[in-house]
Amino acid sequence: MSRKTTIIKNAFMNFQRSVFRSIPFSIELGLHKPVTVVIDITRRCNMQCRFCDIWKGKQDRDPSLSEIDLMINKLEAWLGDFQLSFLGGEPFLRRDISDILKISAEKGITTTFTTNGTMITRELADQLVSSGVYGINFSLDSISAEKHDALRGMKGTYDKVMKAIDYLRESKLAHSSQLQIGIASIICKDNIDDIPLLVDWAIENKLDNIWIAPINGNFDSSFNEDWYEDNELWIGPEDMSRLDDLIQRLKKIKKSNKIIINTINQMQAMKTYFSLKKFPFKKCLAGNSMIGIRVNGDMVLCPFMGPVGNLLSDDPKKIWMGDRAEIIRQEISDCKKTCGIAFCFYDKTFIEKVARFKAIIDSST
Ligand code: SF4
Ligand code: SF4
């Protein structure tokens, strides 16, 4: 299947499932199903980012290759088409990463990876490009090596991620590939002024997309409700005019360039989030079109709430339609935590959906 056909098919799947989910009893009728599944293939990480606790936690066992294969087979049997995202920890710490690539490539599933970029060699970049992986997202918070390294807790990280991006861009060019190379950035007190420069850099270097997320408590499974109190990276009242400037600049860039994935409403919501320290949207759509799978196979609807079942031992459709999932859905719909992850589950307006659809189609031609 050509890349353009895949993109159109995925866009249609997204649209169809978003219509189905608004129909009463759509879950019970089997109409409402996830679009994206995020699988943690390791909890190990070689970074010590200041806004993440994963590296501090206990190192759970990675799922084996056959367990990953089993989980993907079960998901495919239930969902048919879906988008697969591999996450960590750092996914490229796995020695069998080439075999994992083969599993998703052979099944023709639209697959993306998110990485800190420190493990990608030229050889791996070539493998990624020729595997047919849809996209790679690099964590990059500044184009200042000093700032990026300070936020990621390790010297030399910036140089490594820049090298990895170069390897992929060169390989992409050499193979006339349409691999999507993107950046995921966390906004916090220390890099407010750097974000526009980062976006300019991404545009100049012809990257495909950039996603900007506000700092969250941590990426571990617990959620301290008051995490932002005394957090040294939280954007406080003294930084509000700089945040305002940033939002205005991002909105301006967005009008002339489609590289920024965030919608204008999402950017605006960052102001509410930081200035009022409160949940920035009408409701959180966690677990609506995206589900997460932990390294032990546990399925989660919200990354901070308990599992609704285990994909290795249970049937995913039964988990999705089960009582536990129903209870968690209720908790999610009542949730008003000051949570940066809620930005990932933001429901676009109809106009925003059309604009995003158009941007995706344009990028495929
Ligand atoms: S944010 Fe990502 S790269 Fe940083 S420590 Fe956490 S898992 Fe590792
Ligand atoms: S806001 Fe959403 S993602 Fe965050 S804890 Fe609540 S339900 Fe989960």
Q: How large a portion of the residues is in β-strands, by DSSP E?
A: 5-15%
- What spatial form do the alpha-carbon principal axes imply? globular
Separation of termini?
Answer: 15 Å
| Helical content class | 40-55%
Q: Tell me the number of helical segments per DSSP (H or I, 4 or more residues long).
A: 12
Q: State the secondary-structure class.
A: alpha/beta
User: What's the helix-strand series?
Assistant: HEHEHEHEHHEHEHHEEEHHH
Extended strand count: 9
**Each distinct ligand:** iron/sulfur cluster
Rg on CA atoms, Å: 20 Å
Uncertain regions spanning at least 5 consecutive residues: none
Sheet with the most strands: spatial strand order:
6-5-4-3-2-1-7-8-9
Major sheet size, sense and barrel closure: 9 strands, mixed
Mean pLDDT: 91
Task: Tag the structure with descriptive keywords.
9-stranded mixed beta sheet, 365 residues, single chain
Short description:
With 365 residues, the protein is α/β, with parallel strands linked by helices.
What do you see in this structure?
It contains twelve helices and nine strands. Helix 1 (3-20) runs antiparallel to helix 12 (350-364) and helix 8 packs antiparallel against helix 9. The radius of gyration is 20 Å and the shape is globular. The model has no long low-confidence stretch (mean pLDDT 91). By secondary structure, it is α/β, with parallel strands linked by helices. It has a nine-stranded mixed beta sheet. The structure holds iron/sulfur cluster (SF4) (2 copies). One iron/sulfur cluster (SF4) binds at residues 223, 284, 286, 302, 304, 332, 335, 337, 339, 341-342. One iron/sulfur cluster binds next to loops.
